[in-house]
């Protein structure tokens, strides 16, 4: 199973890159962690309320909610913090907050969202989570059990994350299926879309227009990559291992170009950053999340339909099955691969834009999800488009739900365990085909 061997070797190389560079960027990166949130009473922003963040060694910072009810306090680094709302500063028409003190953990490069629930004091068990932290998970060592609504909220968050991850995984799967290339620069293609959208948005374009244009530019970037060096490498007969190593180098170059031009700070788009969640019974979604999931579903559906119904889609599947036979049948293999690079990079760019909406934009955002993208592709089935989508949904939900039993800092480790198990038990993945040896 030559392709499987290449993929496994690629995964090991990715882990080596993670270990080798992780310490360096952790030391060089400027501290950009913060705690933020918003305060609203029946949808009306509550202004002028004082929020204080403290650590074990004293007070970290204080902020007041602005006209939109939003607040944000930078923190010196990852760790545990106590967030206190001064109830004496609440307006007279606000009945109070359920809990005025919330203890939370901030991860590296995270803008942690903490929301205080308006209501009679002591009427519930704790504060609400916000962006990137939609529930309150019991502290380590606590005997508190997860509520059904908490589980459903984690599943809902996992589906949102999985759909975005599916866009990136589908692009990677298409490239692997047609070229056999394990592309370790794919995470940087995700970052490319997010950063281009941010620059366009910063220049004055609305987020929606900036995101759409960023996807188009990402597709053009994919064409340029293939025309610039992947096609010449194919024609020179370069091996898959050599091209895989080249992709690692391309990823490193792009990553530090982003650091140079974008800086190491985390930045947000100027729209849709903080929204009140809509109540759907056991779980909630912000309007932005519904649009994100809808866009991801439409994009995935269009690509899947094109693969089944269109001539280029059928040609892509033929090249994926047997490039030599497809070429002998009159299919222009180079043209198919170029199209796949355009579509795959555009999908990665779209994933980056959507990730930027639910998180913030930074030069490492694609690098952090790269291993999850590989896990989704391997889980679903190497080189299968449908498998990449299904695998991404499973990975997304698994990551979120696993925080019920393990610390959130270790939730990605569970995905690695699943990946190893799949490789041992069913190496072809859920929808992959077992290849005959000999």
Name its key features:
4-stranded mixed β-sheet, Immunoglobulin-like, 438 residues, 12% strand, elongated, ABC transporter involved in vitamin B12 uptake, BtuC, alpha+beta, 12 strands
The CATH topology of the largest domain is ABC transporter involved in vitamin B12 uptake, BtuC
| Major beta-sheet overview | 4 strands, mixed
Number of strands: 12
- Helices and strands, in order, run as HEEEEEEEEEEHHHHEEHHHHHHH
CATH class value of the largest domain? Mainly Alpha
User: How large is the count of helical segments?
Assistant: 12
The CATH level-2 architecture of the largest domain is identified as Orthogonal Bundle
Distance between the termini: 10 Å
- Determine the fraction of residues in helical runs and give it as a percent range: 55-70%
Radius of gyration: 23 Å
Low-pLDDT segments, ≥5 res: 1-31, 124-146
Q: Based on Cα principal axes, name the global outline.
A: elongated
Derived from helix and strand composition plus strand pairing, the structural class reads alpha+beta
Q: Biggest sheet, strands in spatial order?
A: 6-1-9-10
Percent strand equals 5-15%
The residue-averaged pLDDT reads 81
Provide the number of structural domains.
2
Protein architecture, described:
- This protein is an alpha+beta fold.
- Helix content is 55%, strand content 12%.
- The protein contains 12 helices and 12 strands.
- The strands form 4 sheets. It has a 4-stranded mixed beta sheet with strand order 6-1-9-10, with no helix packed on it.
- Strand 2 and strand 3 form a beta hairpin.
- Helix 10 packs across helix 11.
- The termini are close together.
